[in-house]
Each structure stands twice: as C-alpha cells, then as structure tokens.
Specification:
Length: about 50
C-alpha cells in the first residue's frame, strides 16, 4: 500500500479494500505492474482486469 500511495497518490478506501482482497499471487503481479503505473486510473484498470 505504501508503494501504491507513493506511485499513484492517496488511494481511496474502496480501492484499498479491493487490493486487500487480492490473493498473494495477484499481489505479486500487482507489485510488478505497479512499476508501470503513472496514475490512479492505471490501478483502477489493473484491478478491473485482474480481480
């Protein structure tokens, strides 16, 4: 969550909840994808396609 906040800015509570519901495998995938994120919309799109 700290990395997401640093990369995308303050994360809304509903997105935080969605991240917390991810499996360990998906969290690892998110960690890799996070390197390419430039905005909160990147996170939203990733969650839509991967959860």
């Amino acid at each position: 969550m700290r990395l997401l906040n640093r990369r995308c800015g303050q994360i809304q509570p509903y997105l935080t909840e969605r991240v917390h519901q991810l499996s360990m495998e998906k969290l690892e995938e998110l960690g890799e994808s996070l390197l390419d994120f430039s905005s909160i919309s990147d996170l939203e799109g990733w969650l839509q396609n991967n959860s």
